[in-house]
Amino acid sequence: MTDYKGKRVLVMGLARSGLAAVRLLSKLGAEVTVSEAKPLNEIKELDELNALGVRVAGQEKEIFEEDFDISVKNPGINGKLWFVRRLRERGIPVITEIELAFTVCAPQHYIAVTGSNGKTTTATLLYEVISRVHPGKTHLSGNIGIALCDTALENDLLNDEGHYIVLEISNFQLLDIDKFRPEVAVIMNLSADHLDFMGTEDAYYRSKCRVYENMRDNDIFLWNIDDPLVNEYTSLVPVRCRRVTYSLVDSSADFYADGENVYGFGKKLFPLNCIKVVGRHNVQNVLVACAAAAAEGLNAEQIKSGVEQFKGVEHRIEFVREYNGIKFYNDSKGTNVDATKTALKAFTSPVILLAGGHEKGLSFEPLKENMNGVKKIIAYGECGRRICDELAGDKGVLVNTLPEALAEAMKIAAAGDVVLLSPTTSSYDQYSCFEERGEHFKRLVNALGE
After folding, report:
1. Vertex 280: Cα angle to 300 and 309 (nearest 5)
2. Edge-to-edge strand order for the sheet containing 374-380?
3. Can you give the pLDDT of all 450 residues of the chain as single tens digits?
4. pTM of this prediction?
5. Which letter does DSSP use for residue 391 in this model?
């Protein structure tokens, strides 16, 4: 366990993970300085920071010339920014909140779920499966829900070992790890994302591979042998631990699903009708959860029981309401093109697609083959114009905001249609996070007819 007592630590950026890091560092006796872009009167956590004895500063140049033993960077802060580069130039280590928690906790069972799509559903399902077997000692953390530092504090993970920590982990959180080592990890799949932050597809894909860089010996990497990019990058960045394979097409994989059953190591685990969430992509998510749960010692009956109880994840192809024969689905978690492609494939009814948000520079080309079932695209936000120009063609309608997009959809929708919010991109032009966007959409839909 790393000793932070009396160490001078700079935390860059608050939000959920930054504040969690501050709380944990204060508990450990560190001298904490927070660098935050917001003015003091806009920092809603200021009273808590003051009570903890934390010094709050801005982003003035002199702050980054001070002597710190280590710095903790909010994952939303681009590592190419001048002040992050300056800290590194001065030899001050820059880590993330995930790394901080890992280095101070007692030994735990870490299961890391990353990839471009499917992380949230898979991590949530895996948490629910394991928690039924290990109640009170299973936690869902990371990029979903509670930051790992807060999970550590709330469950005394600094002292109590042997908990099962299911981590949804983003490439931003992986960029600045050093010692973080899960005992089970998976890259669900790879498709272009976060090019505005990473610069190139290669840099993004390689950042995902950091999830297994410290894994050794009997640690287990779950290998999606159906994904060409996962195959390519696990060759470019070799895996040095055990591999367990999964596939929807290759029956020789360790975990496999055909049109009727799910199999593990050649044995039938359960029929597909045990799976309550829709779409073939969710069968793959279930395969990963089964493989990870088996790696943690759960038996077939325990895994089946957990899968049968799972009803899905909020904001991921979430059914909201049927109104006048029109069904509304919230896929606000669809923050890249591949996620929206997956969502469209889940429907056979005509779809009115609401898409738009922060401009990430992603190509919409992969979506074009899925446009046959799309009746209309209502585009909005920063990238709305480009969605209309490059994807929608004569199927496109351009508006400014999500409420306007829904209002436009209601002029077009008929009984039997699906209105699907699947934005293809992140929310940061108009919302603080995809959850806020999804909640707003649900409120708007539930208010129809009032």
Report:
1. 45
2. 318-323, 326-330, 418-421, 351-356, 374-380, 396-398
3. 579 999 999 999 988 899 999 999 999 999 999 999 888 888 989 999 999 999 999 999 999 999 999 999 998 888 889 999 999 999 999 999 999 999 999 999 999 999 978 888 899 999 999 999 999 999 999 988 799 999 999 999 999 999 999 999 988 888 889 999 999 999 999 876 555 555 678 888 888 999 999 999 999 999 999 999 999 999 999 999 999 999 999 999 999 999 999 999 999 999 999 998 877 888 999 999 999 999 999 999 999 999 998 878 788 888 888 999 999 999 998 998 988 988 898 888 999 999 999 998 888 998 998 888 999 999 999 999 999 999 998 899 999 999 999 999 999 999 999 999 999 998 999 998 899 999 999 999 999 988
4. 0.77
5. I
Going across the sheet that includes 70-73, the strands are 55-57, 31-35, 8-12, 70-73, 94-95
**CA 384/CA 195 separation, integer angstroms:** 18
| Three-class SS state of 79 | coil
Do residues 255 and 244 lie in contact, with contact meaning Cβ atoms separated by under 8 Å?
yes
**β 94-95/70-73 pair status:** parallel
Scan for tokens 């099962």, then name that residue.
164
The answer to whether the beta carbons of residues 35 and 58 sit under 8 Å apart is yes
Distance CA 93, CA 265 (A): 43
What residues contact 27, with CB distance under 8 A and at least 6 apart?
A: 153, 158
Q: Are strands 318-323 and 261-264 parallel, antiparallel or unpaired?
A: unpaired
3-class secondary-structure state, position 192: coil
Q: How far apart are CA 377 and CA 219, in angstroms?
A: 45
CA 323 to chain centre: 31
